[in-house]
Amino acid sequence: QVQLVESGGGLVQAGDSLRLSCAASGRTFYAMGWFRQAPGKQREFVAAIRWSAGSTSYADSVKGRFIISRDNAKNTNYLQMNSLKPEDTAVYYCAAGGLFGRRVNEYNYWGQGTQVTVSS
After folding, report:
1. Angle ∠(51,54,58) on CA atoms, nearest 5
2. DSSP helix, strand, coil percent of the chain (3-state; round to 5)
3. 62-73 pLDDT, tens per residue?
C-alpha cells in the first residue's frame, strides 16, 4: 500500500524558515512534488523533483526561496522553505507519480497535507 506522510508544518513569522518532509512507503516514484492550497483558492504547484536524476522545477513564486531535495535511502523528499511570506500560508501537499509535471492530475498519490501559516 502506497503512503505519503508529510511532516514539518507550523506557525512561523515572516522571514523565518521551515522544512517539510514527505516519507514515501510502498514503492518508489519517477517524480515527487509539493503543491499548496490556500482557503478559497485552487491547489497550485510549488516544486517537483525527478527522483533518479535529481532535477528540479519550481513555481516562479517560490524560486530562489524554496529548495526541494531527496534522500534516496529514506525514500523521503524535503521542501526547505526560506524567507517565508504571509502569502505562503496554505496547506502543503506532497504528491508522487510517474510524470515530472506541474499539474495536479499528473500525480497519482497524495499525502494528507500539512498546514503552514506565516504571520506578518
Report:
1. 100
2. 5, 50, 45
3. 999 999 999 999
